[in-house]
Design goal:
alpha/beta, Aspartate Aminotransferase, domain 2, five-stranded mixed beta sheet, 11 helices, binds 4'-deoxy-4'-aminopyridoxal-5'-phosphate, Histidinol-phosphate aminotransferase
Length: about 350
């Protein structure tokens, strides 16, 4: 607390990002980053942009990037909004579409940034408990509310719901915006993008951080009908018109263009996920079926916190959430095959006693 703080800053409850320790060379499986480097096409574009042009502001509308993505996903560029990572897009969306009076609904085990935004913007929210098997109770979202947000697939559980189920939620909530956070959709989920033309209340949010190996470049985007996109643009231009710098704009264009690299790396991650899930299953772990680049696992006898600490001693970082219902689970990002073999070997050793 400081006497200089505004009431606002004194009242916020900030998000705590996953740790990024530098004391050793860790196998880093704790923040769902992609183990593979960005495409060389992306790196070359960034290098080629790191020149005198940096003295000038970037294009505030990211026209070329929007055109490239519009072309890629078959939408109009007016149906696309870009932000500095999808976290920023989500923050803007909370401001643009949710009001304080009626609660926004989101799952009780989900991305921990949602309650942070709700508190920051003084938006009331109601938590919808996941079912016992960690799937989303779709019908619970049919009640009166002031908007809805959920990740699909969900984080940190990795479970997903079908596009048909999302359509039911949209159908029952036509007066409010439904945000589907698809940060992990490229690892086997199905995008709700196909519903955009039919549902003016749908906003789909995606990111380049996971499936395009660009967590460090900070590029996220939203897809929706023009009136929603204009709402986001109004918020953005009330805060900072240049949320994407020249390097990010240039790199992101090439990330979309290098489709072959995108397909190859995400398929590799999916294959590794399935292999590691099988191995852990054989070791007696409960492995929640995942459509993401992470798995959510629990051991029958070794407590998750103990496993987390022992893995850290072995220089392997995973994510442990000290939170009701999931405090005996670990979230493990899918690394390269070599990294995951190290992880499996350490787990074998620790769980054997
Ligand atoms: N949504 C979910 C569900 C996430 O797990 C993350 C990553 N932590 C994000 C959004 C934000 O990703 P980024 O800001 O890197 O695009």
């Amino acid at each position: 607390m400081s006497k200089y703080w505004s009431k606002l800053v004194a009242s916020v409850e900030p998000y705590v990002p996953g740790e990024q320790p530098k004391d050793r060379n860790y196998v880093k499986l704790n923040t769902n980053e992609n183990p593979y480097p960005p495409s060389t096409q992306v790196l070359e574009a960034i290098k080629a942009t790191a020149n005198e042009s940096l003295k000038l502001y970037p294009d505030p509308n990211g026209e070329e990037l929007k055109r490239t993505l519009a072309n890629y996903c078959g939408l109009k560029k007016e149906q696309i909004f870009f932000g500095n990572g999808s976290d920023e897009v989500l923050a803007f969306a909370f401001m643009a579409f949710f009001d304080p009076e009626v609660p926004v609904l989101f799952p009780d085990i989900t991305y921990s940034f949602y309650p942070v935004y709700a508190n920051l913007f003084k938006i009331d929210y109601e938590l919808i408990p996941l079912k016992d098997d960690f799937t989303l109770p779709v019908e619970q979202f049919f009640k009166p509310n002031g908007g809805i947000i959920f990740p699909n697939p969900n984080a940190p559980t990795g479970e997903y719901i079908t596009v048909e189920a999302i359509e039911e939620i949209l159908h029952h909530n036509q007066d409010h915006v439904v945000i589907v956070d698809e940060a992990y959709v490229d690892f086997g989920g199905e995008s709700a993008q196909s519903l955009i033309d039919q549902y003016p209340n749908l906003l789909v949010v995606q990111t380049f951080s996971k499936s395009r190996s660009l967590a460090g470049l900070r590029v996220g985007f939203a897809l929706g009908q023009e009136e929603l996109i204009q709402g986001l643009e109004r918020i953005k231009n009330s805060i900072n018109s240049y949320t994407l710098d020249r390097l990010a704009l240039a790199g992101a264009v090439e990330a979309i263009k290098d489709e072959a690299y995108f397909q190859a790396t995400r398929n590799k991650i999916i294959r590794t996920r399935e292999r590691v899930s099988d191995e852990l299953g054989k070791m007696g772990f409960k492995v929640i079926p995942s459509k993401t680049n992470f798995i959510f696992i629990s051991h029958p006898t070794v407590k998750a916190e103990e496993l987390f600490l022992k893995l850290k001693e072995e220089a392997i970082l995973v994510r442990y959430f000290k939170q009701p219902r999931i405090d005996n689970y670990l979230r493990v990002s899918i690394g390269s095959d070599i990294e995951m073999d190290r992880f499996l070997e350490a787990v074998r050793k620790i769980t054997a006693g």
